[in-house]
Amino acid sequence: MVDNEQLIYPTVDLFLYDLGEGLGESDTKIEENRRDFFTRIYGEKLDTEILNQIKTVEEKAGDYLPLLSHLPDYIQPLKHGDGYYSPVKLGDTYGLLIDCSGEIDLNPENQLSPKPLTSLSESKTLIKNQLNSDKGTIGQSWFVWGLLTSPEQNSLETAKNCYQQINLFPDDNWERDLKQTGEFLGAHFYELWKPPSHQHQTCDSVHLIICLFDVKDNNSLSEVQKKVKKIYPQLMQLFRYRNKVIWSYWQSRQLKIELKSIIQTTAENLPEQVNQPQLNLNQLQKELADILNVLLSYSNQLSSLEEQQSTIKTNLKNYQKRVNTIAELDFNFNSEATRKFFTVFSDYVEEKYLEQTESDLRSFNSEFKLLENAIKTIEGIISIEQTKSDRNLNLTIAVVGTALSVSGVTVSVLSTQPEPPKSHSDFSFMASPTFFISSLPVLISVIILGLSRFFR
Question: Are 82 and 105 in contact (CB under 8 A)?
Fold first, then answer.
């Protein structure tokens, strides 16, 4: 009976991605990103000299820069296990490939001997021990490959066992996580993927490809190793674009949650602000300032959502170009099968991610206009209240002016009297014609003031 629990040279590869240079980030932040990425590899042994050497390499032109090219061999062996690691700079992104084929075996003949699939779990542990964290800020993809032990071995059942042994997905469920099967490099390919959870605090997407080579067609281990080695740089780029698409979409979901919260909070508060029977002008102006700050925050978040949509489009386009490049490799046996296998993801992104972000942008742009209208309403109320306040101020000034006028008239009349008043209670001067004529404008002002208040 054929054993579906074994492979020849079972190997685990991790492709991990960190952000190198975010849009508008300062030199200090870029230096911090560089240090964080290489701390994954060197830990406490990372020093300024190593970082300066790496920075010099980064300054070279190119979209694929091996960052340890200043060393005699930029592919460095693992601390433990049979494998190596190789960091690269991909434009604004750091990429790290870690390859592990289990424990070190000094006998080369044992490479051709079938190994139990439990070695996949061991290799994953060795990879994690090499790093401080196997979770990239942008994402990561796992690539498992090996040779089937005989032509009779069932590739599907073997792939299922590989999936269980590497144990990457929460609550293992092959039927749920399997997204695509096909051919690539003359091998059986199985792609498994868990999309990110929208409510999760970090991008918890999981991506795994299992590649099983047949032993027929003169597929020797050395030939397979050559194929895989040639395809690594292509996969590094392909998975970079794939993970960036997923990461950007996850960020857009976080922005959507924040935008909905802003809209909900503002909508709940607006009626309380504009429907009060007695409006406090100072309080209303303060609330307007608060809403303007909310609008600014909303506008920034909306711009960020547009930026994430643009990032998805750009990386999806680059992903599709890279698929075509891989499909046309001279050692690829079936270019159309390769395209079919890898374009399942791009079709999903176009139908799900891009349509969703476009729908969100339409919705939130409409909400933005509603916020603007609400602000205009409050500004109008404030303007009306300010007009009322200014009118009251003018009336107050008129009253004060009236009082001053009375005082002036009184002094004027008293100064024309032939004799001063006999005492402070002597008001006989008010019976004089001079006082009456001088007081007439004052009386008119008082009447106008009263009528204005009455009809206000």
Answer: yes
